[in-house]
Amino acid sequence: MAKVEPEVPGELRSLIPMTPAVFFIMLALADGHKHGYAIMQDVTNLSDSNFRMGPGTLYTTIQRLLDLAAIEEVAEGSAIAHQDSRRRYYRLTRTGKALLEFEIGRLESVVRMARHKKLVPRRTE
User: Fold this and answer.
1) Which of 32, 36, 77, 125 is the most buried (most CB within 10 A)?
2) CA–CA separation, 95 and 57 (whole Å)
3) pLDDT of residue 8
4) What is the C-alpha to C-alpha distance for residues 55 and 53, in angstroms, rounded to an integer?
């Protein structure tokens, strides 16, 4: 029986498939809240330096994700926000986490199809 994927809410459908900027920002936030510069560093590390983004792309994408409620700014009263009041910290929302999981599932499906067509070598794990 085919696996049924959850529906992606209307306005969030515009993020699927995710651009590299959206994907790596959300992946960087998957393990906790971060400020912009830390997100940029994480993106570089997560992509093995294959994808780098400048501040323009970072903050334009962050604003789009904020507008869609996929991420949120950490409240000013929190301990993390007090570490450096000049920095804004961001984290995934529940919706953002579900959206990231959906995209990862979509990518896994693409890789399975590519392996089936013998385009990607099988790895033993």
Assistant:
1) 36
2) 22
3) 67
4) 7
Span 47-55, average pLDDT: 93
So what's the pLDDT on residue 3? 47
Give the integer Cα–Cα distance in Å for 19 and 24.
9
C-alpha closest to that of 64 among 123, 2, 12, 124:
12
Closest to 15 in 3D by CA, of 90, 66, 91: 66
Cβ atoms 33, 74 nearer than 8 A? yes
pLDDT in tens, 9-48: 677 778 889 999 999 999 999 999 999 999 999 999 999 9
Structure tokens at 88: 């804004």
Residue of 118, 64, 50, 58 lying closest to 96 (CA atoms): 64
At residue 4, the pLDDT reads: 41
